[in-house]
Write a structure and sequence with these properties.
The structure holds 2 protein chains of 2 kinds.
Chain A lengths: L3 E4 L2 E4 L5 E7 L5 E8 L3 E10 L2 E4 L6 E3 L9 E3 L8 E8 L8 E2 L3 E5 L1
Parallel strand pairs in A: 2-11
Antiparallel strand pairs in A: 1-3, 3-8, 4-5, 4-9, 5-6, 7-8, 9-10, 9-11
Chain B lengths: L3 E3 L4 E4 L4 E7 L4 E9 L6 E7 L2 E5 L2 E6 L4 E6 L8 E9 L10 E2 L3 E6 L1
Parallel strand pairs in B: 2-11
Antiparallel strand pairs in B: 1-3, 3-8, 4-5, 4-9, 6-7, 7-8, 9-10, 9-11
Classes of the chains: A mainly beta, B mainly beta.
Chain lengths: 113, 115
Amino acid sequence: DGGITQSPKYLFRKEGQNVTLSCEQNLNHDAMYWYRQDPGQGLRLIYYSQIVNDFQKGDIAEGYSVSREKKESFPLTVTSAQKNPTAFYLCASSIGGANYGYTFGSGTRLTVV
Amino acid sequence: QKEVEQDPGPLSVPEGAIVSLNCTYSNSAFQYFMWYRQYSRKGPELLMYTYSSGNKEDGRFTAQVDKSSKYISLFIRDSQPSDSATYLCAMTGVLGSSNTGKLIFGQGTTLQVKP
């Protein structure tokens, strides 16, 4: 079945550590997105990529980094510069643009310990 | 002012009630409108999709778009406990307009349907 796989489902980070969240899709979608979800704040866009080897900052990119070396993969690194990383992270993909909506992964819950 | 406004609720209704969820928006270039349903600790799933103005019905769900008022709605008839979730509205514009390639989401409304 086609879909988006996010891993791990739960992730714990110590202060000062960088961690990488995985996002893989087998839908042959061109565009991929990373969102952060906090209670009462909806979805906030971190980074997005509309084509391999190209990506753009979203509304809250500070403290995060991404790469898009393959069409299927769009990993997100949460760096030590992100001061409040505890959140639910969602990866999504779309055929091209957003006119037909996104397909979302099941999310990664990141907690700072 | 946010581009898309959605009452976060929470909204609590008895089983069998008609539920109305709403979003307002400010960008007249928006043409594609969606509703996503998100269960706790899961990713959102696309529930309804509408292009431009009008109504769309799918089973117990009806989506309405009023572009003149910049207002969209989702109605749930005969609500069930399994409808308990967060509902997010989302929208985007035509090619060449602002926000092309990105969905703009509302904050989400949390709905609880009590048996």
